[in-house]
Amino acid sequence: SRLDGDQWIEGEKGSACRPGLYSQDKDSVFFRDGVRRIDFVLSYIDDKDDQRKQERRRVYESNLQKVGLELETEDKTESEDGKTYFVKIHAPWEVLATYADVLKIKVPFKVNDIPDNSEIPMNWLSTPFRLPEHIMNPEPDYFTAPFNKSKSDFFLIEDKETFFPPSTRNRIVYYILARCPYFKDECGDRDKKGIKRLLNNGTYTAAFPLHDSRYWTKSKDPNCESERFNLYKYWAKFFCFFKEQPLNLVRKYYGEKIGIYFAWLGFYTEMLFFAAVVGTICFVYGFLTYDDNEWSKEICSEEIGGNIVMCPLCDQKCTYWRLNITCNSSWQSHLFDNVATVFFAIFMGIWVTLFLEFWKRRQARLEYEWDLVDFEEEQQQLQLRPEYETKCTNRKLNRITQEMEPYLPITSKCARICLSGATVLLWISLIIACIIGVIAYRLAVYASFASIMKNNTATNLDVVAPYVTPQLATSVTASCINFVIIMILNLLYERVAIKITDMEIPKTHLEYENKLTVKMFLFQFVNYYSSCFYVAFFKGKFVGYPGNYTYMFGSSKLRNEECEPGGCLIELTTQLVIVMTGKQVWVQASTCTRKARSHPESLYSRWEQDYDLQGFGQLGLFYEYLEMVIQFGFITLFVASFPLAPLLALINNIIEVRVDAWKLTTQFRRPVAAKAHSIGAWEEILGGMAVLSVVTNAFIVAFTSDMIPRLVYMYAYRTHDELNMKGYINNSLSVFNISQFTLEERPEEYPSWFNSSITTCRYRDYRYPPDDKKRYEHNMQFWHILAAKLAFIIIMEHVVFMVKFFVAWMIPDVPSDVRARVKRERYLVQEYLHNYEVEKLKIQLSQNSNNECTCTPMIYPSLSKHEVLSECL
């Protein structure tokens, strides 16, 4: 019978939650005997009418016991809800040792005695940011080697019950659960297996390892480490945002895969600090040079901007307007479109390189410290996905392992990949169609807003700009609609991406995640960035000129959008802020709306507490990486238009680290520990975006901002002796004879200040005037500016890429001390193994009762026959 909370039983003495007298309270992580640790828990609700599920559970649990796992079931009458059964699983030493050998899990065999000579200069400055030593380094540093069951005495095994930490134990148990069969067909040649399929068909409702304690208080047992409590206290609380992360404790409790994510996120946040500082300085420079903005002064001037009549920005519904009504937007544009923009674009190209190169070094150090140096080969060869083993009935010989293994025929593989690729292209086409729809909305709604303003009797067109309000309304509403479409398409495509990745039947978990990563990123890239690409590189570039405008879909009445005299950069900034900020608010709001877990007054069992938490899922980290990589794109691809983007990202990430830690520690069940030696395919994606960011920022400075036209005017076309921007506005606007407007293009109404003496209007372009024999053709200044833009792109790209390659060449991916320590450790491992074998041989010889040497070279193959005989003598 189940023991009550106040009942005591005798237990074995030992460390790590195994006291001499053990209280079997409801928060226990042990079987009823108080000795065997619970390594995994399965839950189900018994439906007596469903005999198939009962039979699956019976066969499955019977097979688990045949493998060697020990089970203990809690009846539903003992559960809090009165209807859920809990099957507790314990892996004894023989099972752990066997599968540790199979999985080549590295375990300690000697304390690391290599001196650590790395000293941080002025270490006292980092004291406020440091955590206690027992939190930062919860276990000693050991030399490790892959476990070999036949040589178990070679390793540092003080207590078999605690030799494998809980994270390793639950990883081994899950490996067994994922491959244990629960059904065999009549032919007997194909098993149905795996806990994942049993969860999908409802046979079990959950499968999870246990947390070691409640997060808000330590375990009642003083011998328990209560690592979950330590993580919450020193890591998950928001007020720890200025403290370093206890990455070794995270790795020990959750496994290397989760540990390396938080290491990357923390490193990314640290590097953002430098980008945020420089971006803020560039923004402050634009603010301080506010009064030196000569072209804005001309726009706002009544004598210059007030006397320049601009051509209508749409047909019929829009009317003529004075240039000075764009005064405010011109000043705002200067905050982001100034000389510092060029510097910041170049700086971010170099920053991206430094970020990636220094991360490779940081990652290499973690690989060594966390015993992941040789992990990739193990991942590829040994850990096949259970779904792959189940669905691939064909077998072939693996040349490396010399064992028969399942494989997918090349014809089937190609067909699945083609179907998957076609599906991704279909969804990307859907995104492009939606973007075209938003562009059509922008064109239509601008004319509508202009018409509404004219018909509004409360609006004085002479005082309030008939252009600014429609432009602002169009830009903001289109950006908001685009953001809503982005979120909806994300929700729909997510399921599709998982389905088609499952259909491809990837061989390993790493291959599965990489395939899903590529699909999701391609979709998200187009989904999030397409509107920004439109504003940056297409809007205002194909509008034609008065009397010969370009229309969307050719014959439609939707005239292509123009940029205002201040340029499209300010609108790109608006688009970037709305999408980037909206995404961050959406994610944080989704987190806050999740059900918060309160501290139960009447505590129920440890497994029931964890059962009520959310499942982390195999792709839990995938979405976290995706969110950060999309953010990375915003602060690199379009950063020339918004220098404050790194600052917003930094603030978000400071919160994100603690929010992710809080969710993982308090809201989710304990994930199954998994290994990962890197951030996977995300590293290649970041590298690709780093290269693309140089190109996009060069084009933004050249074609979206007005930096190049201003420089060309200053040095080549000014009509005065002073080196300044006087006369630039008049020089940058072309002239059109309004009598040449067609009937469809003429405005329906005219402002009160318009009179018959006005015969021309101005528009943004570099064309010959109507009285020139080359009227309305591009003039020489246009071609000079175009040549300057192309030259700037070539020079900037070459300079940045040369610096990038030089920096990448100068900074090795693996630190020299880490490379030396890896070689040293491998040498020592071989030496200790050699000494171990020699000592073992001596022991065998000493146990020989007669004087005749009976040993042979087969006992120790690495020794020659002469050496063996010498040892015998």
From TrEMBL:
Keyword S-adenosyl-L-methionine: no
Cellular component GO terms, alphabetical: plasma membrane
Domain Anoctamin dimerisation, first and last residues per copy: 30-247
The keyword Transmembrane appears for this protein: yes
Residue ranges constituting the Anoctamin transmembrane domain according to the UniProt record: 250-825
Entries under InterPro entries matching the protein: Anoct_dimer, Anoctamin, Anoctamin_TM
GO molecular function terms attached to this record: chloride channel activity; protein dimerization activity
Membrane topology designation: Multi-pass membrane protein
Annotated compartments: Cell membrane; Membrane
Pfam families membership: Anoct_dimer, Anoctamin
Domain of life: Eukaryota
Segments passing through the bilayer: 261-288, 339-359, 424-452, 472-493, 632-655, 782-811
Keywords assigned by UniProt, alphabetized: Cell membrane, Glycoprotein, Membrane, Transmembrane, Transmembrane helix
Family: Belongs to the anoctamin family.
Name the UniProt record assigns to this protein: Anoctamin
Organismal lineage: Eukaryota, Metazoa, Chordata, Craniata, Vertebrata
Underlying gene: ANO5
